[in-house]
Structures are given as structure tokens and as C-alpha cells.
Amino acid sequence: MIDHHRESIPKSVYILGVGIFCLATSEFMIAGLLPNIAPDLGTTIPGASLLITAFAVGMIIGAPLMAIATLGMPRRTVLITVSLVFSALHVTVYLTDDFTIIAISRVLSAFACGAFWAVGAVLAVRLSPPSMTGRSSPSWQLD
Fold this sequence. Notes:
This protein is mainly α and 143 residues long. The chain contains six helices and no strands.
């Protein structure tokens, strides 16, 4: 028998989860593409791997800065804006073969990813019923 009174995670939390998954995939996906990217950029695989470092630096610096910078802004506006910025930066990467532009785009897209993560994680917990906050938090990725 189905318990209709059971609390559940709101659909918006799943949407936030998909957003975080998509943005985080960009962070790690490049590692598997390095052998293909390096020749296109006229560099070695270790040279191209600096693009991974660029994203990591952007996350380390950008996540806390963006969390503070967006404190007073409406959460929905922040999430939509940083998603659009993130997407535009990836289109920029797609359209160029200039290593410097790609590296700068990676740093800036990490700022956007950090902002989405910071706002999205807090919002997911706030949107969930108290008994479901552990399931709604993306902290499971830290294990």
C-alpha cells in the first residue's frame, strides 16, 4: 500500500541536481579528451591538462567569491544567469582554438559552476522537507 502522507523531495530539487551534474561533468570530462584536445591546440597532453587546472583554480577562487557576491540576489535569477554564462563560455570554447581564450573561459566557467553549486546546494536543502534534507544535499559527492 502506498503511503500518500509520506514526504518526498520536490521536483525542483531534482532539476537542481541535473544542473549540478551537467556543470560538474564539464569539470571532469576534459580529462578523457586530452589526447584529442592537445594536438588541436598545438600542445602536449601535459600542456592541455592545464585546462583542468584552470577550472580547478576557478572553482577554488570563484565558488566562495560568487557565493558572497550573490547573497542578496534572488536565487532563481542567480541560477539562470550563471547557467547562461556557463553555456556562453562553453560556446566560446567550441568556437576557438586559442589556448589562452580556452583557459580563461575555463576559469570563468568554473566561477559560474561554483556559483550554481553554492546557490543550488543551499536551495535544494531549503526546498526539501526537514526529513529529506540529507537526500537533497549534494554532500554525498564529498564521500
